[in-house]
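Section 5.1 Outputs to date
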Amino acid sequence: MTKITVVEVAPRDGWQSVREQIPTETKLALIRRMFAAGIVRMQIGSFVSPKAIPQMADIAQVVEAVLAEYPDKRPFVLVPNFKGAQRAAAAGLKEFTTVISVSEQHNLANVNCTVSDSLEQFARMRQEFPDLRISADLATSFGCPFAGETPLARLLEIVDAVVARGADSVTLCDTIGVAHPLQVAAYVQAVRHDFPQLPLAIHIHDTRNMGMLNTYTAIQNGVYEVETALGGLGGCPFAPGASGNTATEDLVYLLQRSGYQTDIDFPALLAAAKEMHALVPGNYSGHQININACAQEANC
């Protein structure tokens, strides 16, 4: 049975879009519920300026509590730059991911610097923290709200750049949810062909209700790690038109029914999703209906 690692990103990519401040204890309670359901790897927030993302103002407290309580799990954070990486390392995290857009325009809007500057900062991170696991999230891998469809040659160029600078893994991110299955298959195949030893993950937004299909297409083309958000919550605040993420509970249901191993307790995950809906307001991309309907099924 093929094992798929489902990486939960709601505490960062989901909660960052919520305008009302979520109490730290509520965040920790929901993180505990997700870990208890069988999630092992979770993006628990980001070390960013609270002026840019107010929801992440308490990230240091969240990291401290999670590291103390879950030494056997793999919590990590997103950092936009070298300063964020320093904060993540100082907090005691063993791994973090940094975001670099394939699109020059989106990188300027998202992290306020050029792609070249982001690559230089990535190299500094690798040199400064040789013992930490550092991954690269490649935003707009498939399309950009400012530049349109991302050329495959440009994607391969940026993958090569981060691999040359020591990336431990790469995640292809459909930041605004414009990818389609033929594109996902072609781009994943090309990256795997050119970088056969590179651990590769996928992160698909569900803007056009294509999240499940595109994620499953990536899996069928050899991707074994996928990033999703509980309830489908999310949306990049610096990408016009971005909608929610692919819902973790929907994908786990599909994978388990399709014969994949996830090591996740689906009823417990579903209960966590319902609790988050009750506690956290936000853009769930219509998944509330799916959750309520599934809760009525005897086999759920």
